[in-house]
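Step 1: inspect the first sequence and its tokens.
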Amino acid sequence: GALVRLFRVLSKGWIMETAGEERVRTVQNLCRLEDAGILLKQASTCDPVTKISTDFPKEVSAILNELTTLSSRDDAERLLETGVSMWNSVINLEALCDASQKEALVKVRHVAADCIYMSITVLSGVSARFNIDEISLLKFYTACGQKYVSELADMDMAAVCFSKASEFRKSAQAAAAETEGGKRAFAKALFD
């Protein structure tokens, strides 16, 4: 028989789920996020620019929230690649889109940063494909917070991003103190 474990408790009782079912759901959610990243990339290269739905950020955020676990380094690398792709596509789209798209793009940027953070956490800070460290995460969340302030005047979401950035500032500062080059990189990150 399949190994059964307690997945979660709901008000109506216990729900049991096999480890295999959870793995299938994780793979499906990763595929959905990858598809979303591909759609963003295609939208950023179309002429004229394809508009993204105002529900798109909510949908990709919900998919990310459904990812309860990344059971392998390969899953984490896939999520990291998706997050980086989304981030880069948002940057391209920001230069091409009109004001009606700004809110969706700010929110997708935040989802991309969360994808990167989740995957780097699982990878213990070491990716085979990307060089992303605490300083990079500090920059990602600071940029998200700045976008929430400057483009949406959403101080609550900006505070969430700046709080996350503050967590990385502490660890990045500690890591940077070990080398002279690290100190310069940290100082540059703070003022970029």
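Step 2: inspect the second sequence and its tokens, then contrast the two.
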Amino acid sequence: DYQPLKAAEVALFVEQLLAEGGVAEAGNWLAQLDDASPLKLLLRLKAGLITPEAAIAAARAALDPPSPPPQPIPAEIKKGSGKKPPKVAPPLAVKPPSKVLAAYWSIIAQAAGQLKNPALQAEALERQLNLPTSPEDGLFGAAAENLRRIYAELALTAANQAQLLVGEEAAWLDFAHVPPPPRRWRRAPCSP
């Protein structure tokens, strides 16, 4: 007889399966993951169970939880009684921890990559990298190098759309035909 795994063990197991590319194997554990977990959302996205648009919407909803409903006015304060309801600040919605926020921004970035939307991908990576605890590797990792690459793609797209290189073809062709500089080092000859 086997004891059922704890939720944290299942999450770690699924995370390792996904890190190794075992999406189908990880899908067998989908029902045992917490519904509010970013890992479950990522697994559903990678397994094709939801569209990238739906994953982005779900991640954004998790990042910005709805505020709690306003407090009801006490029954003793009736309309026309002359009493005003006390002014009370609405309760604050609880933000998830930074690690969870980073996971949801990573999901948005990955879904934006599937949609070929570099602007959204750049936004998600910027927000993820601005968090105090953002992993650089793993399933929910973000590297500044990826953001720099996306910025370069966006700049090239904008330059092409604005036709900034029109009329500069000759200069670019000359630059392309310049031979590379000679090597400054050579292997030392083998001595017998």
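Step 3: confirm your contrast with the notes below.
Residues 38 and 183 are 50 Å apart (CA to CA). Helices lie at 7-19, 23-27, 38-46, 52-63, 98-114, 118-129, 144-161, 169-177.
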